[in-house]
Amino acid sequence: MIELIDSHAHVDGPEFDGDRADVLARARAAGVRRMIVIGAVGDPGSAERAVALAEADADVFATVATHPHDVDKMTPAWWEVHERLAPHPRVVAIGETGLDFYYDHSDRAAQVAAFHRFVELARRVGKPVVCHIRDAHAEARAVLTESRAAELGVIIHCFTGTPDDAAAYAAMGCYVSFSGIVTYKNAQPIRDAVGRVPLDRILVETDCPYLSPVPMRGKRNEPAFVTHTAAAVAQAAGVPLADLAAATVANTARIFRLPAPAPVS
Is 65 within the bounds of a domain? Predict the structure, then answer.
């Protein structure tokens, strides 16, 4: 069986409250034993839930932050939660943070300020940064350069830029993660971007419950479906699926500093 890691999943959310255990079981059955659960949707309750899941399951790891969509809502109490959880041993990164100038749900200056502050938090706890970047790639690279974030490790999750953007991130030392979007008919620029990222910098993810890959479009996404994304990324990279899978597992373990998995009983 091909082993994969889902490097970005939102299985803490209410979409999985009815069958979370079954979702995790299906993931393991598909070879997706480990996953990174992103505690950054809405208020800090997401961070708390992600950490609780990671505490309860040795194959689950957490991140904490506030999504750029929601930084206008942040209060000192929100920051206190992130400051408290960031050093937790089951928290492997700060994120997802970043810039979204497509939806502009939060003021752009507020997004930039929060992005800088989350990178500073990551520096204090010595962990990498998971970045959500949409229609703001030049601005994001400016923040990452100014903050020297590459020293910590940077993951550009759910990449949606141009092939040149992908190459620029790779040149900075960032890891680039591809979601189910890479399987979509109209996503040739994303497939072209795969080839601009060295194999040792590529990650795969679901971003579940969003962005289900072909042939699962129309269904709630879940970690088991990352196998379809990996197959499309392997084809775009021009490498066998087994090689792509082995590389992305090694890359994910390296950037998130994951411990070796426990032996399967």
Answer: yes
- Residues listed for the chain: 265
Q: The domain containing residue 56 runs over which residues?
A: 4-255
Q: Indicate whether 261 belongs to any domain.
A: no
Residue 260 lies in a domain: no
Nearest partner of 44 among 16, 20, 76, 22, judged by Cα: 76
Q: How far apart are CA 183 and CA 193, in angstroms?
A: 13
Q: Would 263 be classed as within a structural domain?
A: no
Question: Can you give the pLDDT of all 265 residues of the chain as single tens digits?
Answer: 899 999 999 999 999 999 999 999 999 999 999 999 999 999 999 999 999 999 999 999 999 999 999 999 999 999 999 999 999 999 999 999 999 999 999 999 999 999 999 999 999 999 999 999 999 999 999 999 999 999 999 999 999 999 999 999 999 999 999 999 999 999 999 999 999 999 999 999 999 999 999 999 999 999 999 999 999 999 999 999 999 999 999 999 999 999 988 777 6
Give the separation between CA 84 and CA 86, rounded to whole angstroms. 6
Strand 202-204, strand 154-157: pairing: unpaired
The number of domains in the chain is: 1
Q: How does DSSP assign 155-172, residue by residue?
A: EEES--S-HHHHHHHHHH
How far apart, in whole angstroms, are the C-alpha atoms of residue 214 and residue 67? 26
